[in-house]
């Protein structure tokens, strides 16, 4: 059986080789010559153009194949791009010392501008450009914008007929000596549009368009300077919102492409300063330029010039991916290898993304023409599924299955544990609730029974003390009220749990709610140990509320303030209006709460301290009922409390419409 499978596999392999050998060989021969066919002919026919014009023509196009270009002259030396040199004239020429002193030390900009102008008119060619740019700079600082603009135009575009003043200042024969002065001319062009931008000048669009279309191609300036100036011009145009205008959008796009091409070209030129650098590199063939990144170069003679064209690896990958897409099937896949042995197009392994072992390749052809030194390789798509790979995959399946099973068991165990803990918590809460209710009900009943028995015993024995009888009856009344409120809380809680609590909303005066609540608990606040302050603002707006329910809320808050303030009670209640809401505020000087407790006090049956609850009374329902009623009234409860310093509960209810 195993031998039969091996024989079948070998037969399939041989069939694939027979099927694709002719197609791959034809592809290697034909596609190698098509990539550059059109552009090479165009470049060869463009020998009349200057080096910078040739560069602009082939890198500024939107559909350009070229990502950069290095051009050499007849002597084989670098002609374009222009790399910066160390002998360039600096703006801080010592000849201009007097002008610099006036500008930067004395801040006398107008005098400095005059001195700069004198140097521009009479100075030698090594300081003329620096003097002109210095004059523009000082006029701008002196806010002589019109004169600064005129000076910019004189220096920026010296060949234009309207610059007659320049002819008076600088002899015509040395206005454009080039090279050394071109950098200052380029800077003047940028300063001109920056002045336009500062002044919101109507010629800003025209000035930007002029530079972006010209792109300093008429000036001999180094690439670094050109890149900086073009980027700044693009930035000015975009900041002014000109990028959205159709006539400028195309120019900005071309300028960005030229900037990118200048950067790539400058990097390549540093490694290939002379054509002698191409020794061992056949003309017309692509090689990877490692110093520039994913860039490939091809060099050739164009008339009396030499050209090093630069193409992005993405474009080459796109070309070859499309060329070989017809050969990629389920059984095989194809990739293109460049001169350095790196994959230029096609995945290493279409199925797993992993590197394909060299022994799994079943076909390889050398490319020719522009891609001489490159290869096309064909691989079995299922060859990566060797026995070792299959074993590893199977092991991975078993491992993940084991992990999933264990994980599922852990999750189920966790859920069961959580359910059991919740059930235990519910049982504990139920037992605590029953114990608390029993205690709370027995306490007032026992007190009333003792008082009643005492009164009956005195009556049976013939002893009668009217004052003491009234005192006992008052105590019985209080315990009765306490028992009633406790039962009301239980009933309210029961209706809450069954969602059957109904409210009768009417227009109610907040003062009536507050007064009714205070009357209900007045007897607790009459002792000498308690100081109670009650304040109601005048002309309170009405609220839409269930009066009895809101009275229950205030009573609960006042009752808690009394219970949890032990000695020298100081309780204050205020009713006022704030931000179109009626506020009921209850303040005490009791034991207070920390933040953790404040977050839980509205939970059902929550009691911060069992011993404290036993001392003060209650079963943890009061504040949960308060929260339920306030929420039903679309209100809010705000609690501010600090341990040992008391608490402030504020109920905010919307004003009635």
Please characterize this protein's 3D structure.
The protein folds into four domains: 2-78 and 283-380, no CATH class; 94-221, no CATH class; 388-477, Helix Hairpins, CATH 1.10.287; 502-654, Heat Shock Protein 90 (2-Layer Sandwich), CATH 3.30.565. Helices cover 53% and strands 14% of the residues. It has helices at residues 2-34, 37-44, 51-59, 97-105, 109-122, 125-141, 145-156, 164-169, 182-199, 204-214, 223-239, 246-271, 313-324, 387-460, 466-497, 510-520, 547-563, 595-600, 610-616, 622-632, and strands at residues 68-72, 78-80, 287-288, 295-302, 305-312, 332-337, 343-345, 361-366, 375-380, 506-508, 530-536, 543-545, 569-578, 581-587, 636-642, 646-654. A hairpin with an 8-residue loop joins β8 and β9. Residues 86-91, 161-178, 349-354 and 383-391 have low confidence and may be disordered.
């Amino acid at each position: 059986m195993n031998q039969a499978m091996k024989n079948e596999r070998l037969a399939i392999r041989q069939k694939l080789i027979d099927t694709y050998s002719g197609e791959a060989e034809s592809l290697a021969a034909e596609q190698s010559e098509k990539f550059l066919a059109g552009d090479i002919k165009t470049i060869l026919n463009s020998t009349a153009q200057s080096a910078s014009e040739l560069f602009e023509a082939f890198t500024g196009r939107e559909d350009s194949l070229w990502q950069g270009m290095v051009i050499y002259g007849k002597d084989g030396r670098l002609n374009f791009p222009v790399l910066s040199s160390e002998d360039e004239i600096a703006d801080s020429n010592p000849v201009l010392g007097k002008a610099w002193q006036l500008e930067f030390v004395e801040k006398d900009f107008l005098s400095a501008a005059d001195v700069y102008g004198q140097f521009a008119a009479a100075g030698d060619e090594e300081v003329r450009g620096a003097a002109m740019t210095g004059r523009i700079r000082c006029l701008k600082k002196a806010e002589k914008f019109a004169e600064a603009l005129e000076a910019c135009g004189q220096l920026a575009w010296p060949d234009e007929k309207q610059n007659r003043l320049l002819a008076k200042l600088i002899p015509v024969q040395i206005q454009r000596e080039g090279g050394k002065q071109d950098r200052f001319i380029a800077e003047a062009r940028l300063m001109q549009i920056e002045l336009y931008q500062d002044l919101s000048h109507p010629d800003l669009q025209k000035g930007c368009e002029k530079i972006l279309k010209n792109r300093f191609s008429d000036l001999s300036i180094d690439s670094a300077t050109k890149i900086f100036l073009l980027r700044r011009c693009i930035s000015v145009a975009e900041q002014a919102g000109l990028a959205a205008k159709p006539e400028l959008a195309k120019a900005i796009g071309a300028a960005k492409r030229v900037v990118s091409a200048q950067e790539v070209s400058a990097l390549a030129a540093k490694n290939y300063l002379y054509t002698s650098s191409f020794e061992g590199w056949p003309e017309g063939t692509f090689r990877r330029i490692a110093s520039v990144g994913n860039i490939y170069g091809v060099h050739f003679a164009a008339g009396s010039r030499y050209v090093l064209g630069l193409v992005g690896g993405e474009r080459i990958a796109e070309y070859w991916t499309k060329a070989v897409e017809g050969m990629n099937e389920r059984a095989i896949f194809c990739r293109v290898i460049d001169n350095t042995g790196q994959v230029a197009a096609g995945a290493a392994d279409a199925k797993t993304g992993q590197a394909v072992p060299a022994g799994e390749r079943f076909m390889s052809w050398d490319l020719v023409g522009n891609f001489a030194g490159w290869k096309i390789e064909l691989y079995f798509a299922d060859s990566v599924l060797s026995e070792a790979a299959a074993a590893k995959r199977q092991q991975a399946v078993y491992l993940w299955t084991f992990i999933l099973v264990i994980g599922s068991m852990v999750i189920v165990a966790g859920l069961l544990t959580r359910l059991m803990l919740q059930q235990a918590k519910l049982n504990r809460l139920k037992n605590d609730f029953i114990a608390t209710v029993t205690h709370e009900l027995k306490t007032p009943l026992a007190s009333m029974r003792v008082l009643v028995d005492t009164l009956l015993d005195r009556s049976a024995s013939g002893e009668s003390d009217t004052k003491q009888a009234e005192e006992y009856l008052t105590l019985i009344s209080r315990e009765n009220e306490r028992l009633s409120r406790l039962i009301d809380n239980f009933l309210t809680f029961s209706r809450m749990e069954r969602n059957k609590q109904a409210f009768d909303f009417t227009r109610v005066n907040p003062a009536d709610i507050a007064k009714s609540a205070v009357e209900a608990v007045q007897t607790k606040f009459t002792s000498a140990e308690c100081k109670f302050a009650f304040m109601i603002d005048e002309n309170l707006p009405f609220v839409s509320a269930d009066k009895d329910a809101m009275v229950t809320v205030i009573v609960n808050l006042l009752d808690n303030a009394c219970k949890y303030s032990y000695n020298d009670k100081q309780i204050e209640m205020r009713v006022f209006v704030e931000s179109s809401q009626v506020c009921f505020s209850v303040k005490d000087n009791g034991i207070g709460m920390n933040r953790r407790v404040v977050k839980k006090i509205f939970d059902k049956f929550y009691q911060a301290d069992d011993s404290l609850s036993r001392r003060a009374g209650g079963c943890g329902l009061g504040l949960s009922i308060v929260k339920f009623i306030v929420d039903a009234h679309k209100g809010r409860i705000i609690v501010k409390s600090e341990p040992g310093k008391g608490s402030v509960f504020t109920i905010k209810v919307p004003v009635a419409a």
